[in-house]
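During the second half of the funding period, the structural biology subgroup turned its attention to how the target accommodates small molecules. The most pressing case was NAP, which had performed well in the primary screen but for which no bound structure existed. We therefore specified the complex as follows and requested a full 3D prediction, including the ligand pose.
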Amino acid sequence: MSASWGRVVVFGGSGFIGRHIVQRLARTGVEIVVPSRNPGQVASLRLAGEVGQIVPVAVDIGSDAAIAASLTGADAVINLIGILATSRGNGFDAVQHQAAARIARAAKAAGARTFVQMSAIGADPASDSAYAASKGAGEAAVRAAFPDAVILRPSIVFGPGDGFFQRFGRMAGLLPFLPLIGGGHTRFQPVYAGDVADAVMVALTDPACRRRTYELGGPRAYSFRELLEYICRQAGVPGRWLLPLPFPIATVQAAFMELLPGKPLTRDQVRLLKRDNVVSGTLPGLSDLGIVPTAVELVVPTYLRPSGG
Ligand SMILES: NC(=O)c1ccc[n+]([C@@H]2O[C@H](COP(=O)([O-])OP(=O)(O)OC[C@H]3O[C@@H](n4cnc5c(N)ncnc54)[C@H](OP(=O)(O)O)[C@@H]3O)[C@@H](O)[C@H]2O)c1
């Protein structure tokens, strides 16, 4: 990181991937501002740095003025804000498109030199999935407001505290069967959170990354069935029944599960599962950033154990 950098602002720095990034930034000595809905809840993040180095601030991402205030003196801005399911007042377009646009415009106006936008594989404004469409619209809005922005599109991200391996690991420990939505044929290329954080660090500092979009995938692709079988083995329930659930049935089931607290499955997620989540090969990736991807088998056993969690 350039010695002339004073302040990096990390929207979404309180999340799973954000914590890895904040830890890496802290080691460089820069001041890190973490705008959050609940700055009190992210106070523990401050332990990753020296006293006063990491500063959580309260920000409403619907407010241009609040965003602008949090960006005062920002040399670089990272936007990690994202959701997998909507909640009251938190729609996909508002969070992943409009807020991204607002942050990129404000970053430009504040004179930031670098902007990194965390998107996702499959981002496409024309997608029938509201998640993927809002990610695609967010990318376009960021590019329009901050043309030099670096866009990163990971596949599913793993590491302690992840939302895939740990969630299915817990389910494997509790349920008599796991649902193989769409027969389990969808392919994923899980990428380690530490590698994603390393990619952000390169994107921030290497001018060659400017204006580029990277797809981030791990060393190999797995079918959904292969991943669930692996998770069941790690969770100590290798014989757990995997119940094939055709997409139309999964869609009906999701319509009911959307009504449960925390929305364990949504119809939009079922739509997402109809497409493979692997790198296309037409965009640069981790190797172009000088990063050797870490295998699932090296990391997942460190946090997914037979207790199921
Ligand atoms: N994890 C994956 O497998 C994966 C895969 C592909 C792409 N991504 C993308 O990577 C980014 C980070 O993912 P993650 O796994 O770290 O997610 P995460 O743990 O759920 O963190 C999401 C972050 O977004 C913030 N956020 C959500 N809604 C907000 C709102 N209305 N106002 C303000 N902040 C809000 C959260 O802040 P609070 O603390 O206030 O809730 C949190 O800091 C996201 O953009 C996600 O779409 C993740």
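Two results from this model are relevant to the next phase. Residues 12, 14-18, 36-38, 61, 80-83, 90, 95, 118, 120, 154, 156-157, 163 surround NAP (CB under 6 Å). The chain has a mean pLDDT of 95.
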